[in-house]
Amino acid sequence: MKTRNLFLPWVIVFSLSMNAQMKINENKYNKLIKGEKHSEALTYLKEKGIANPDTYWFNRDAEQLATFCFDPNFDDNKYDIIVNYANNSFKDMSNKDRSYSEVANCYLVKANHYLWKGDFEKATLAYKESLVKLEKFKKENDINPQDIKAIKSTIDRYYINQTETQKMAKALRNFDVSVLNLSEEKAYEARQEIKKILAVYDQPHKVHFITYDANSHINKEFSSYYFTMGHFFSNYFKSNFFYNMPKTAKNKYFSEINLYNLFDDDKYKTKEEESLQTEQRKASLIKKYGKSFGESIFDGKISIGMTKKILEDEFNKPRTIDTYEYSEFWTWSSIMVTIDKKTQKVTGITQLK
């Protein structure tokens, strides 16, 4: 009986807590979303005047609200409701840094709507509008400038990534695999992979309800945060036709695309560009340190006579540094280097087992 008496209050508290956390996840709202009555769903959200400052649950709300970019009838009223919901939730959060991405996507929903429609001019205006709204939110609510700066940075990054994604999809539609001089088999594989990518890109996308127990998504191939294909492109492009593409083909078909912004990574270079960059780095090291040291650094090797500054500038930080009266001992996983404290040069290299 004692156990039961203790258990019942806990159940009541837990139930009340869950109800508070899942404000947006109500039956009427869910039915409206599932019935694709998007205007009614957001009007209902506005009328209830609810906000969810619980970071965990707000993030899931935001994932759903961000999908309104796929609403064919998206308008300014819907945008204002979504942004206000994000603002009202964010200003009372105790862990604001955990929701920067989600707030950014609520602000970007209008710009993303136009990007998916292929209207870059209106998308640009919507992007600028999002930054104006963010600044207004900061001033009216006295939000920490660092939080606003982080959200703005995320908006910038996501918007540029999304823009480059749209450009890449367009470029792929016009890409002629034959310019790569691949074997018949490899050319076939490349064409099939491009078809696969575009099939995912072109499938119907719509506002969708995200279940809180399974966090399911209709748009499975897209990031739950910003609906781009950078992650979808990456492995294929690095290991197949893009890496081996001649520079002339890249300049012809992909010259307008900033691959760094698309992939959030600067490693997606063609084999030709990577080789050129490698040779340029080697020449630069030789010019700076001389032929012997330059080639050693390029090969990742430490040589007798190198200065302590060279080690600091060109090699990874050692695991340990032991300092004695006349010498320092720098130890990595496979070698230990002795540095004379007076000359500041390497005087010994010991290979470790």
Give an account of the 3D structure:
- By secondary structure, the protein is an alpha+beta fold.
- The chain is 60% helix and 6% strand.
- The protein has helices at 2-21, 27-34, 38-48, 55-66, 76-90, 100-117, 120-141, 145-173, 184-202, 230-239, 247-254, 259-263, 271-289, 291-298, 308-314; strands at 320-323, 327-331, 335-340, 345-351.
- A four-stranded antiparallel sheet has the order 1-2-3-4, with no helix packed on it.
- Strand 3 (335-340) and strand 4 (345-351) form a beta hairpin.
- Helix 4 packs parallel to helix 6 (100-117) and helix 5 packs antiparallel against helix 6 (100-117).
- The chain starts with a helix and ends with a strand.
- The model is unreliable at 6-22 and 211-226 (pLDDT under 50).
Portion of residues in beta strands equals 5-15%
Query: What's the mean pLDDT score?
Result: 81
DSSP summary, beta strand count:
4
Low-confidence stretches: 6-22, 211-226
* Rg, Å, rounded: 28 Å
Structural class by helix and strand composition: alpha+beta
User: Describe the biggest sheet?
Assistant: 4 strands, antiparallel
- How do the SSEs run, as a string of H and E? HHHHHHHHHHHHHHHEEEE
- What is the topology, as strand order, of the major beta sheet? 1-2-3-4
Taking the alpha carbons of the first and last residues, their distance comes to 65 Å
Oligomer state equals single chain
Percent helix, as a range, is 55-70%
